Amino acid sequence: MFLSEAEAEAALRDMRRRRDELDRVIAEHQLYLELGRRLGAPTRATEPAAHRPATPDPMSGAGIAPDRPPDQARAGEDLVAARRHGRALVAAAVNLLHEAGRPLHAGEILQGLTALGFDLPGHDPVAALNTRLWKRAVPGGPLKRLGEAVYAPAEEDEDLG
Does the predicted TM-score (pTM) go above 0.85? Predict the structure, then answer.
């Protein structure tokens, strides 16, 4: 009646694999919706329900319980709050760079942001932060990229020149 250790580990591996697949599908759908909103295209929610194809519920019969409460999942979908958080994160990173008085690696910036209470999701938070900083290290932006994941405030170049 009870699972052996090997059977339990195999079942866990299978459930984790299915959870990863669901996470990828969810992320793709969120990106699709965001792109549609940016382009001003009508979403499928505006179509009459009778014309919409039935979407299978990935959770039904899968035997996988959600790993976070529904209110937290909805909070991640709030694009306005996400953008506000992203701007605050970059502003805090720029402040950390000013306080340090020298260029910092994304890993060092992450340590400072974590101490300030910021949290970056994902398997590799340093890579996630590096991506966010890299996107803001453009002409006219608040940051200057000096090397692989190394950043300084953009106005430092103006002071040197």
Answer: no
Residue 76 has pLDDT above 70, yes or no: no
pLDDT at 56 over 90: no
Instruction: Give yes or no for a contact between 151 and 97, defined as CB atoms under 8 angstroms apart.
Output: yes
Q: Can you name the residues that pair with 151 across neighbouring β-strands?
A: 104, 145
Residue-level pLDDT at 2? 84
Strands 143-147 and 150-153: what pairing?
A: antiparallel
| Residue 11 CB partners (closer than 8 Å, separation 6+) | 3
